[in-house]
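Appendix B, example 12.
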Amino acid sequence: MNTLPAVRRRLRAHPYALDTLIAALTLGTIILAAVHPSRSPSSPPPADLGPLEVLVAVAASAALIWRRRAPRTVLALSGSLTIGHVIMMAGDPRSPIAVSVAVALYTVASRTDRHTTWRIALITTGVLTGALMFFGDRPWYADENLGVFAWTGMAAGIGDAVRSRRAFVEAIQERAERAEATREQEARRRVTEERMRIARELHDVVAHHIALVNVQAGVASHVMDARPDQAKEALAHVREASRSALDELRTTVGLLRQSDDPAAPKEPAPGLGVLDQLVDGFVRAGVPVAVEVAVDGALPTAVDLTAYRVLQEALTNVHKHAGPDARVEARVLQRDGALEVSVRDDGRGPGDGDADGDGGHGLIGMRERTSALGGSCRAGARTDGTAGYEVLVRLPLQTGSGAGSGRAER
């Protein structure tokens, strides 16, 4: 059952062998049609093939071996031989050498554009049919003349159809390859974005909790001998902060598990609903924080999480860079279709006035989170002219309903 496809593949791999076979079949068709013409009453009698007829037929057919390399030259040669034979042998039955012209014209049509194809086809068909009408031994309206016109025109039409189909298949293949490449690029882009999101999430979690652990551990070490009760309290805060860090890390990493992995905790992402817990941690670490929250209704999940992470990162940077006596004001206000988050301190630590005081990663993460929601983020010296540092973030709201507000002071 696979014999025919194997033969076709072998012939395509050896085009000259295929063209030689076509030339031989064309020669056989010419001789067979000359010896056994149509049985119509108006048909000419069988041809008396002489050396000249056979020589012309062989030459016209042999030219087809080079039809792929020089299609127009082969067409011109086979057409000239056909017309020359008609002129020289007028008055005698003709061998149908025009078959070679039809094969050559098909080749030209299948290898050039449509405009050129039909221009060449009209010239070839017109010249060949006109020569048969004027120099042949049959009337101009004879069936043989009209048959040559029809067969050459049909050969051009078939060649053009083959070329169109070949171009269509190539376009489909190119489109499929381009779609596959685009799909792979999109997959790589999404993987990169997801990696950046996870990196930001892990940085926010680790930086916040480790900063608290570091402070409380320092306090415990400082007062261990003089005030052991206060040292125990600081160590309890260390334990609580480390447990919270582990819980959030477990939740974040659990999102990366495969479907067949052991079940991971699927706790909701933190938001402004747990802002009190976040502020309590900093207050216990010795950072006075005054918080004002005025939000109408429920926030979109992405906005809620981003606002929480911005506050977390900003407060962590205050604790790390603003100095031991810094005071912080944090505001979360909803107005003009957006959520505005601001964190201001009055410290003069090493990070004051430095937009990348924490090495750049935290603030870069804030900017990326804000930009992903179409918002804006500014971090730098306070705009009111007083000493200190501020982070100002504006997040556009997509949805929001209900009513509610809250205020808290720490």
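The chain has eleven helices and six strands. The two ends are 85 Å apart (CA to CA).
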